[in-house]
Design goal:
Elements (H helix, E strand, L loop, with lengths): L3 E5 L6 H9 L17 E7 L2 E7 L10 H16 L2 E7 L6 H13 L3 E6 L4 H6 L12 E2 L8 H11 L16 E7 L5 H9 L17 E7 L2 E7 L12 H16 L2 E7 L6 H12 L3 E7 L10 H12 L8 E3 L10 H13 L5 H14 L4 E2 L2 E2 L2 E8 L4 E6 L7 H14 L8 E6 L3
Parallel strand pairs: 1-3, 1-4, 4-5, 5-6, 7-9, 7-10, 10-11, 11-12, 16-17
Antiparallel strand pairs: 2-3, 8-9, 13-14, 15-16
């Protein structure tokens, strides 16, 4: 595996800015506000032909009684525990603080290599001032400005020197993970809890406070012979309820996470049923052509009789009538009920998204469909279907060449899609059908 480099420090010293600079990405949210980064964020970085994984963490506040801050500290400690090298970031303008001293004491006990990073050193005077961090007993501080990119090359040189020797598994690329799965939904529906159960660890912070997850977080897991990237996303609220700029960017990243996924697990709270926002989130995934699974979470909290499951399923189908092709599974992240069945569905949907139909079989199907139900006439003219071909996958896309696309009625397009779904297993994947006028 690639070596792990954890970025730690107290709140608001520029950890996420440094993470974005070294990884050459904007995956970590940066705000002039402490406590923005909460979960551990991972990203690959490259320097002098060497590859490693950066871990961004939330600001550590030792001894805090605040529930969120305590969870952030636990996440940071987990990152320190799994890291091969630690970057302790400090604010050179603020000088050495008591929290810096406590964190340094914590890091000394780990016996792991640590690089002191004196951030926000934009001037020569501040570079000289960085010398006061020697008192932490962790070696020579490297003065940089993450925001301006000053001396970050020197920092990367130091990182490469401290990394463990190249191993046989060095250089694994993220693209080798076969299935990228985004868990999307409203705040507090249990997305992080489901991923934590699948990972068998407290990878994501889980509280009953809506909005705890702020970044789209990738987690890697091999289950059987299959490799997955689980993407935990920030809860998506209605625009009218988004007041903070941080939350705005969190939601933007959630939509981007949906876009880069192969399959989206739309998580619904069984206690609240399908809401308008659930419809918008699922609709966005549908529009982007993503495979989809609907997970109705907290099913253990519902009082049931012999008809509860059927009634609830019918309601989901009614409220999400445009997603009749999407499988629905009832789960409980708390008890683990059917959580791993999500994986079976995700694998099935992912394969269906890649379905390919030969041109001959496809045209035979279209001819049979037209013979059974010919296109309706419009103003004395009839739509004629000449031939069809598949032009894409993920999602499967088809072009049908006709005499005049303007003669096509949406109901006939829906009829042809239904014929395709009856003939082939397209469970969980949208289908795109385009009609083109045949060139004369």
């Amino acid at each position: 595996m690639d070596p792990l480099v954890a970025i730690v420090g107290r709140p608001n010293v520029g950890k996420s800015t440094l993470f974005n600079r070294l990884a050459q990405t904007r995956s970590a949210i940066v705000e002039e506000q402490s406590g923005v980064t909460r979960d551990r964020l991972y990203s690959r970085a490259y320097w002098n032909s060497r590859e490693f994984v950066l871990i961004d963490t939330g600001g550590i506040v030792p001894g805090s009684l605040d529930k969120i801050e305590e969870n952030i500290k636990l996440q940071a400690e987990a990152a320190i525990d799994e890291a091969d090298l630690i970057l302790l970031v400090m604010d050179v303008r603020a000088g050495v603080s008591n929290i810096d001293m406590e964190i340094a004491h914590l890091l000394r006990k780990t016996k792991k290599p640590v690089i002191l990073v004196a951030n926000k050193a934009e001037t020569l005077d501040l570079h000289i001032q960085a010398g006061e961090f020697y008192q932490l007993g962790l070696g020579e501080p490297i003065a940089i400005s993450a925001a301006h990119g000053m001396n970050t090359g020197d920092l990367l040189d130091a990182v490469i020197e401290q990394l463990p020797p190249l191993g046989e598994e060095e250089g694994l690329l993220e693209d080798e993970f076969l299935i990228k799965v985004a868990f999307a939904g409203r705040p507090n529906v249990g997305k992080s809890s489901l991923i934590n159960y699948l990972l068998d660890q407290k990878r994501m912070i889980v509280t009953d406070i809506p909005g705890t997850t702020r970044d789209a977080v990738d987690s890697f897991r091999t289950i059987g012979e299959d490799k997955f990237v689980f993407i935990d996303t920030a809860g998506i609220r209605r625009k009218s309820r988004v007041f903070e700029s941080v939350e705005y960017y969190s939601i933007l990243r959630s939509f981007r996470a949906i876009e880069r996924s192969d399959v989206v697990v739309v998580v619904i709270d069984s206690k609240e049923g399908v809401t308008e926002q659930d419809k918008r989130i699922a609709g966005y995934a549908h529009e982007k052509g993503k495979g989809m699974v609907i997970a109705v979470n907290k099913w253990d909290l519902i009082e049931k009789d012999d008809h509860t499951h059927k009634i609830f399923l019918e309601n989901v189908r009614k409220e999400l009538s445009f997603l009749t092709y999407v499988p629905v599974i009832f789960v409980s992240a708390l008890s683990g009920q059917r959580v791993f069945a999500i994986i079976d569905r995700v694998k099935e949907v992912n394969e269906n998204c890649k379905t390919k139909i030969t041109t001959g079989i496809l045209n035979n199907l279209i001819r049979d469909a037209v013979a059974v139900n010919p296109p309706p006439t419009a103003k004395g003219k009839s739509l004629k279907l000449y031939y069809a071909t598949q032009v894409g996958e993920k999602p499967p896309a088809f072009i049908i060449f006709v005499n005049d696309p303007k003669l096509l009625h949406f109901s006939y397009k829906r009829y042809l899609e239904n014929q395709l779904r009856e003939a082939f297993d397209f469970t969980g994947t949208p289908i795109r059908i385009f009609f083109r006028e045949r060139e004369r």
